[in-house]
Amino acid sequence: MIRSPFQPLRGGNKVVTPAATSASTTIDPVSQSVRFVNSGANICYVRMGTSVSGTPATTADTPVLPNSAVILGKAEGENTVSYISATGTTLNIQPGEGGI
Question: Where are the beta strands (DSSP E) in the chain?
């Protein structure tokens, strides 16, 4: 299987600081993939959805390990990412295409 490389949405990266309380940010609803880069020293958890659902992230959601990156596919129309980290970290959220 040949996968296409991740193609970031230019100007779409957001840098957030997950903490002990779930927070969220908006992302491009048309992009099919999102790259998460955790450049901090602590694990964080992410959840994608719509602003209508407003579901907070919990430790039951997708983990992004410290000093690592993960690319996840998303459904068209999902325009929100929720994130949480019990001890705080730095997370880059980059919508785009491919990479999965």
Answer: 7-8, 14-16, 23-26, 33-38, 44-49, 62-64, 68-73, 80-84, 91-97
Neighbour count for residue 58 (Cβ, 10 Å):
11
d(CA 26, CA 40): 21
pTM confidence score: 0.94
Report phi then psi at 57, rounded to 5.
-75, 150
Place of tokens 């491009």: 28
Q: What is the pLDDT of residues 48-62, one digit of tens each?
A: 999 876 789 999 999
Question: In angstroms, how far is CA 29 from the centroid of its own chain?
Answer: 13
Give the separation between CA 100 and CA 25, rounded to whole angstroms. Answer: 22
